[in-house]
Amino acid sequence: MSNCAKDRRLRLAAGAALLFLTLTSCGTPAAEEPGTAGSPPSSSAPSSSAPSAPSPSESAPAADAPPEVALAMDPSAPVSFSIPSLDREAEIIETGLREDNTLEVPPDNEGAPASWYNGSPTPGETGPSVLLGHVNSTADESGVFYNLEALQAGDRITVDREDGSTAIFEVYKSEVYPKNEFPTKAVYFPVDGAELRLITCDGFTAASGEFEDNLVVYAKLVETA
């Protein structure tokens, strides 16, 4: 992996607490601590009976088994994405941080693309790659990330990259967070595998005319082409 990719992740970890996302009148102030799920309880209870002797296969060492390596790709900027279950395709542009440490967001005009936050790994590279998009446009509700809440676990997201390769991700969860409880570390901080985060607005409130929440879709790399 290139030094610039390592430096990018270090900058991301150091500065993520200062990030602020503004998408179509919707903010996501960085939370001090991400929401964390508790460990699942053990399904087995201790037994007072003597343990049975292991079978030969159980006692045989697995020294020859290769260590499991998380699927990942070399760095390459994204150029477009598709979500087959939503019949959605769009280009991806690159955005970064403004001088005040707020996230630069993609334009909100009709047909505007999504953007890749260049402080995160490129899609397919080890770590959480972040794509931003609007839920609506200035004309109607057909924003690039419109209806993103319809995605379900197992749905695929395909990202075409500048080097001609393709990263294929599988959704494993989506979460809605109030903008004042945005889990910055859970979304932006490094992870062991290659993952994708799609971030957009949610929770439109007619009384205020604003989006009160953010929707985050989490996906992991499952295939390359």
Features:
single chain; mainly beta; Sortase, Chain: A; eight-stranded mixed barrel; two-stranded antiparallel sheet; 10 strands; hydrolase; Sortase_F; hydrolase activity
Concise account of the structure shown:
The chain is built from 3 helices and 10 strands. With 225 residues, it is mainly β.
What are the SSEs and their pairings?
Elements: H1 3-15, E1 20-22, E2 27-29, H2 56-59, E3 78-83, E4 88-95, E5 114-117, E6 127-132, E7 156-161, E8 166-178, H3 184-188, E9 194-205, E10 210-224
Parallel strand pairs: 4-5, 6-9
Antiparallel strand pairs: 1-2, 3-4, 3-7, 5-6, 7-8, 8-10, 9-10
Describe this structure in words.
The active site is at residues 134, 201. Residues 1-30 form the signal peptide. The longest helix is centred in the N-terminal third of the chain and has 13 residues, at 3-15. The chain has three helices and ten strands, in the order αββαββββββαββ. A hairpin with a 4-residue loop joins β1 and β2 (27-29). 10% of the residues lie in helices and 34% in strands. It has one domain (8-32, 70-224): Sortase, Chain: A. The strands form two sheets. The protein has an eight-stranded mixed barrel with strand order 3-4-5-6-9-10-8-7. It has a two-stranded antiparallel sheet with strand order 1-2. The two termini are 19 Å apart. By secondary structure, it is mainly beta. The protein has helices spanning 3-15, 56-59, 184-188, and strands at 20-22, 27-29, 78-83, 88-95, 114-117, 127-132, 156-161, 166-178, 194-205, 210-224.
